[in-house]
């Protein structure tokens, strides 16, 4: 049934989730793409950080390792592909100041993530905290350059979008506090 569906399209955009079971299903899609032989572009489900340039702790480490293996499988089979790296979304992590479990904006207290051991938290929170550890402690969002040989910067693809800097975004979050202080 999957093979029949793949034979009817030119492009596949996988939107499977990030849990290991759903990521494993992408290998079936890749095998169907290989068998069908008609796909012009495959976009695997990995919307987020580059799985080949992160160093998260568990439980996110396993997910990123699987994403990297899927990438390698796609390359090994010479499947035309596009990897979308949106990194972290500034409107999720920045307003929370790394506290994935709370709703922003935060004005009263800030918690400090300990040594990065997120294993004692509920599963979804553990995953969020392990990514936060990777971002804030290991700095994986700022330890590489985007160059023309490896990627395209979004601001070049969509110049009509009015982008703001992280500083401008933080200022927008802090403006209610500044107004109250004055």
UniProtKB/TrEMBL annotation:
Kindly list any coiled-coil regions of this protein: none
Report domain NmrA-like positions.
2-100
- Membrane-crossing residues? none
Q: Which domain of life is it from?
A: Eukaryota
Give the record's family classification: Belongs to the NmrA-type oxidoreductase family. Isoflavone reductase subfamily.
| PANTHER family to which the protein is assigned, alphabetical | PHENYLCOUMARAN BENZYLIC ETHER REDUCTASE 1 (PTHR43349:SF35), PINORESINOL REDUCTASE-RELATED (PTHR43349)
Could you identify this protein by its name? Answer: Isoflavone reductase-like protein
Organism lineage reads as: Eukaryota, Viridiplantae, Streptophyta, Embryophyta, Tracheophyta
């Amino acid at each position: 049934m999957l093979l029949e569906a793949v034979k009817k399209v030119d492009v596949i955009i996988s939107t499977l989730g990030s849990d290991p079971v759903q990521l494993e299903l992408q290998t079936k899609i890749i095998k169907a793409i290989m068998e069908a032989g008609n796909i012009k572009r495959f976009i695997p489900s990995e919307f987020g950080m580059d799985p080949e340039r992160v160093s998260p702790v568990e439980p996110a480490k396993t997910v990123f390792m699987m994403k990297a293996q899927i990438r390698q499988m796609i390359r090994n089979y010479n499947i035309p592909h596009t990897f979308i790296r949106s990194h972290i979304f500034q409107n999720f992590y920045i307003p929370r100041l790394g506290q994935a479990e709370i709703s922003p904006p935060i004005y009263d207290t800030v918690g400090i993530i300990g040594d990065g051991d997120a294993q004692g938290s509920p599963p979804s929170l553990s995953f969020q905290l392990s990514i936060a550890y990777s971002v804030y402690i290991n700095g994986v969002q700022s330890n590489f350059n985007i160059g023309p040989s490896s990627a395209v910067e979004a601001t070049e693809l969509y110049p009509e979008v009015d982008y703001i800097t992280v500083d401008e975004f933080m200022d927008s979050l802090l403006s209610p506090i500044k107004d109250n202080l004055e």
